[in-house]
Amino acid sequence: MMDWTDRHCRYFHRLIAPSILLYTEMITTQALKFGDQQRFLRYSDAEHPVALQLGGSDPADLALSAKMGADVGFDEINLNCGCPSDRVQSGSFGACLMKEPELVRDCIAAMREVVDIPVTVKCRIGIDDSEDYTFLEDFIGTVADGGCKTFIIHARKAWLKGLSPKENREIPPLQFDIVERIKDAFPNLTFPVNGGIKTLEDARQKYDLFDGVMIGREAYQNPWFLRTLEEEFFGTENLLTREQVVEAMIPYIIDQRIRYDTPMKSITRHMTGLFQGMPGARNWRQILSTQVHLDGATPDLLINAIPNTTQAE
Fold first, then answer.
1. Active-site residues: which are they?
2. Strand runs (DSSP E) across the chain, as ranges?
3. pTM of the entire structure?
4. Which CATH number fits domain 242-305: 1.10.3380, 2.60.40, 2.60.120, 1.20.120?
5. Given a cut of 60, is residue 310 above it in pLDDT?
6. What is the pLDDT of residues 27-48, one digit of tens each?
7. How many CB atoms lie within 10 A of CB 233?
8. Of 4, 11, 100, 287, which has the most beta carbons under 10 Å away?
9. Rounded Cα distance, 288 and 272, in Å
10. 7-222 belongs to which CATH class?
11. 84-123 pLDDT, tens per residue?
């Protein structure tokens, strides 16, 4: 979810779903070590609970980055061992790490030594021509020796050669049966699952089988899905309506502009799917795509762009 679930997106999602655990986009250890740490680690207190997702493969650098995240108040550190993009392959992290379970074990141990918050792993069921179950079993068993208790598994293989990141999310078949076998083999570990979960019924089914569900692009493209999950799994009542979410974003937009000179479009780009599937959704998207960047545009533009129909929330 790099360039997607930034702090503005997470603030927006938190207004919709007060309880769901949010994850940052993947932040590399090199960016934290040599870049603008404050910018990369900045978040709103309203985002809690929120996990910092790291990309890297050096135990010392990951320990340094994990401590930075813990020191500023993140609730969890997550090591990405599932992203198959060219960028992570060139840096030998992400899904590439599944080929080196001993290194991942050492990375987890190094991070756990310096932080008191949970350190988790997100991975695939395998990579390339790996023997599906055996490969994953070895990876989980080895990494667990480093102290990792939670593995969020995207139930597809990652093909490091021949498929684009988009194709890697769609072409390799989902194999939740392999994750079921892994869960049975490691009863003392926790296994949330990810991959292709787009409906409440599917989320219910996976939640019955596993220890949680992670929603990626569906939550971004159809953020109101988070509201459905919040009601179903947390029983939260008196949630904000879509209109109230828009209204609540306006003071945030103003604050970010004053404090950090953040352009309004950098925030509203995450909001285009708010009215997906409802009358007036196209007009809402068009206004957010074509008008918020114009000179003189103000946050009031969002209020005027809200579809005129009365929504049943």
1. 83
2. 22-23, 27-28, 50-55, 76-81, 119-127, 151-158, 193-194, 213-214
3. 0.92
4. 1.20.120
5. no
6. 999 999 999 999 999 999 999 9
7. 17
8. 11
9. 7
10. alpha beta
11. 776 665 556 788 899 999 999 999 999 999 999 999 999 9
